Amino acid sequence: MPESFNYFKEDVKDYIVRRIPSEAKILDVGPGVGTYSDLLRDVGYKMDAIEIFGPYIEKYDLESKYDTVVEGDVLDLKINHLDYNFYILGDVLEHIKVDKAKRLIDDIINSGAHCLVAIPYTMEQGEVYGNKYETHQQTDLTKELMLERYPQLSHLFSNHNYGYYVNKGLKEEMKS
């Protein structure tokens, strides 16, 4: 779904504000309705977005919420910390097959960038609003499996339905 679950959003905002400098270059991957722009733009963050499903760009007026919006697949990007030093993957990873998702996380972390991953647990979903990309490819995710499958990530917040993760090291780092 293009909408994100509301769990822990204020905690996430506080976490980002305390750790990520306001001048950070942020890419919101698969912004859907623009949840993270709505959460962070009012505290001064500039953000770009990459959205794989073109109709969402107009439907949710993403060009008014982000500095730049690109229609495309994050898997086609050459990840480089000079382009972006913070990636938000909010309700995205479950839509990507395991091998490609692991490679994406590796590419982000190996570039020296940081990421925030938000994930629904054990949730099946098919096509939504005519968008085939909404289909979940990882329907088995749990808190434990996330840490096993993506050992580069640290658990941040979760309940039985939903969890947040960051790359190891970011949890303890503070912005300078």
Overview in brief:
The protein is an alpha/beta fold. The chain is 27% helix and 21% strand. A 7-stranded mixed β-sheet has the order 3-2-1-4-5-7-6.
What would the principal axes of the Cα set say about the shape? globular
Q: State the total count of DSSP E strands.
A: 7
Low-confidence stretches: none
Describe the sheet with the most strands: 7 strands, mixed
Describe this structure in words.
- The protein is 27% helix and 21% strand.
- It has helices at 9-19, 35-40, 54-59, 62-65, 98-110, 143-149, and strands at residues 26-29, 47-51, 68-71, 86-90, 114-120, 153-158, 162-167.
- By secondary structure, the chain is α/β, with parallel strands linked by helices.
- The chain has a seven-stranded mixed sheet with strand order 3-2-1-4-5-7-6.
- It has six helices and seven strands.
Write the layout of secondary structure elements.
Layout: H1 9-19, E1 26-29, H2 35-40, E2 47-51, H3 54-59, H4 62-65, E3 68-71, E4 86-90, H5 98-110, E5 114-120, H6 143-149, E6 153-158, E7 162-167
Parallel strand pairs: 1-2, 1-4, 2-3, 4-5
Antiparallel strand pairs: 5-7, 6-7
